[in-house]
Amino acid sequence: MSVRIGINPLTWTNDDMPALGAETPLEVCLSEGKEAGYAGFELGQKFPRTPEILGPILDNHGLSLVSGWYSSNLLERSVDDEIEALQPHLHLLKTLGATAMVFCEVSRCVHGEMETPVRNRPQMSPTEWPVFLERLEEVAKYLETQGVSMAYHHHMGTVIETEADIDRMMQGAPSVGLLLDSGHLTFAGGDPAAVARRYANRIKHVHCKDIRKSVMEDAKNRNLSFLQAVLNGAFTVPGDGCIDYPSILAVLKESSYEGWLVVEAEQDPSIAHPLTYAKLGYANLTKLCSDAGISVNQ
Question: What residue ranges do the domains of the chain occupy?
């Protein structure tokens, strides 16, 4: 099996906190990402959203478009309205060759609120769950007809956060693919390797971030917001924290996963020098893949 290693621009400039890295041009993100060894980028706030403009920019750097985050509101609007809303994003991904959409339900989410404790995240009522799952299933089926898989991103501060949430979603919406995010799942108290094992054949995308355990525990003990945890340094690049990546990669190897592994570590770029951490993440993940018997393609 073989994978490609990409990166999210959060290393340089943050979408949830635009002030972080606000001064860093897109060209710097792309050139330093290429220098660090990455084959592609996910989308960020500074990326043009039309393929006619973004395509040549990525080509000039020898980079691919990996995927991009889409904020859904299926608890608040119909399937038809959601499908209409995602058309520009879908067009961009399809045109530039991305085969998975990072999809996350953001209704009532709190991960972008500085003063709201992340444990106050929204939870669906017993009557909302079946409505959400039915709508999510329909959107996933639609995306498949377009040649793009839904890669659902379980995320801190949202309605799908915990291992139990993921289980209920995957069991209730069989067409939905999973974005396995090692950092978010660990922060939520879950076991990334166990989840990967349960849904190995439905993993469409992988985000590789690590956790500084003491910072995460402090954030939980002090009931901090997600953004406060980020600013305090809860996340780092793979191989620089407490997550058991060999176990996760062993599952991906066994299931012959051949998608992207994306380094995504929300940090303050004024503290965590972006190029330094981009290089560290690439070096660590490449070695972890090699140790697991996984080939890395450019």
Answer: 2-292
Query: What's the rounded Cα separation, in Å, for the pair 225 and 116?
Result: 5
Decide if 135 contacts 74 (C-beta within 8 A): yes
In angstroms, the CA 33 to CA 38 distance is 6
What are the φ/ψ torsions at residue 50 (nearest 5 degrees)? Answer: -115, 135
Contacts of 127 (CB under 8 A, 6+ apart): none
- How confident is the model over 112-150, as pLDDT tens digits? 999 999 999 999 999 999 999 999 999 999 999 999 999
**3-state secondary structure (DSSP) of residue 176:** coil
Query: Each residue of 233-287: pLDDT tens digit?
Result: 999 999 999 999 999 999 999 999 999 999 998 999 999 999 999 999 999 999 9
For residue 32, give the H/E element and its range. helix 26-36
Q: How many helices (H) and strands (E) does the chain have?
A: 12, 12
Q: What is the pLDDT of residue 298?
A: 82
Query: CATH for 2-292?
Result: 3.20.20.150
**Structural contact between residues 41 and 6, judged by C-beta atoms closer than 8 angstroms:** yes
Task: Give the pTM.
Answer: 0.97
Neighbours of 48 (CB within 10 A): 15
